[in-house]
Amino acid sequence: MVRVIEDMFGIAVNPMTQKTDQVRRFTLSTDRGMCVSIITLGAIIQRINVPDVDGKLEDVCLGYDDVAGYYRNQPAYFGATIGRVANRVARGRFKLCGKEVSVSRNFRDKYQLHGGFVGFDSVIWDVVGIHKDGVTFQHVSPDGHEGYPGEVTVNINFSLNDTGCFGMRIEARAKATTCVNITNHAYFNLAGHGSGRDTLLQHMLMIKAQKIVDTDLEQIPTGKLMRIRNTPYDFSSLVNLGKRIGQLANCPIHGFDNNYCVDVPPNRVQLVARVVHPCSGRFMEVHTNQPGVQFYTANNLPDEERGGVPNIGKAGAHYVRHGSFCLETQKYPDAMNHDDFPSIVLNPGQLYDHQVVYRFGACPKRI
């Protein structure tokens, strides 16, 4: 049985209205002890409590105890829903219906990242449905917002079941032709959200992909896909994450921030990634209908080992470089500028349908 409980998380100014509004929190929980909390600010996943093989609960999702924490630590995007277009848009420009579109360039005035200055992560979402197993949030992105044409209405259904599956179904419809590529930027550590780098490096990872999107040093796609078999980027079978990060020590980006081209048949939800923390027995599977997964190892968080001041999260936890990971389901970055990439164009009358399920569980403390 799933229970849905609502409480008030805080107050914030909604940048879409410039008015102060309540930030509501919805907690979905099961009889087995698992629970997930989502807040209306940014449609953020604020907490995921999961039992280990002995039944001990840990919160495995990075986040904050109050609204101020999320504002204080922007733009890390902890647990946030990202849109209208996730990831990067080269030069903040693209052609759509034969016309050049210019969108905001919020990253060093070079390109757009994660939807612009006021993306989906910054707005307060409306609650349009409370169900027996979850809740539905809605946001209406106006025509011209951050430079994108067409009004877009987005609904996200968050759900939980007794088998440890936490799901998101993201649907969007547009009133004019536009681009849509939404994701969620949750950071995970299956040993516990604040357990840091040492435990993150114990994790084992599998991603069902033979290629990644090739990028330049600014992480802008070149338009090519790079084969990764027998390279440090190859996670086609379960492999230790610490070993792989160590193999990238002399690379310009020390860590992973790559879009994996996963082997998913069109419009089918399928397993694309599996993560295991051997010491606790916890595992997480990612199932989706999206063709890409951005794998990120928190490279841009403070490096405490080199004197960086840690990001202070829930219950005073230190969030640091390589202390967590993201597996962000999406289409390929900068897809509107590459005809060979899966299209992110959404026309009137079409439905954008993005499904992702995170399945949590525990297995004996060995692989």
UniProtKB/TrEMBL annotation:
It catalyses: alpha-D-glucose = beta-D-glucose; alpha-D-galactose = beta-D-galactose. Gene3D superfamilies: 2.70.98.10. One of its GO terms (cellular component) is cytoplasm. It comes from the Eukaryota. Keywords: Carbohydrate metabolism, Cytoplasm, Isomerase, Phosphoprotein. InterPro entries: Ald1_epimerase_CS (IPR018052), Aldose_1-epimerase (IPR015443), Aldose_1/G6P_1-epimerase (IPR008183), Gal_mutarotase_sf_dom (IPR011013), Galactose_mutarotase-like (IPR047215), GH-type_carb-bd (IPR014718). PROSITE patterns: ALDOSE_1_EPIMERASE. It is an enzyme of class 5 (isomerase). The active site is at H185 (proton donor), E328 (proton acceptor). Its EC number is 5.1.3.3. It is found in: Cytoplasm. GO terms for biological process: galactose catabolic process via UDP-galactose, Leloir pathway; glucose metabolic process. The keyword Protein biosynthesis does not apply. Its main location: cytoplasm. GO terms for molecular function: aldose 1-epimerase activity; carbohydrate binding. Beta-D-galactose binds at N87, R88, H185, A186, Y187, D257. Pathway: Carbohydrate metabolism; galactose metabolism; Carbohydrate metabolism; hexose metabolism. Mutarotase that catalyzes the interconversion of beta-D-galactose and alpha-D-galactose during galactose metabolism. Beta-D-galactose is metabolized in the liver into glucose 1-phosphate, the primary metabolic fuel, by the action of four enzymes that constitute the Leloir pathway: GALM, GALK1 (galactokinase), GALT (galactose-1-phosphate uridylyltransferase) and GALE (UDP-galactose-4'-epimerase). Involved in the maintenance of the equilibrium between the beta- and alpha-anomers of galactose, therefore ensuring a sufficient supply of the alpha-anomer for GALK1. Belongs to the aldose epimerase family. Monomer. This is Aldose 1-epimerase. The lineage of its organism: Eukaryota, Metazoa, Ecdysozoa, Arthropoda, Hexapoda. The gene is LOC4812832.
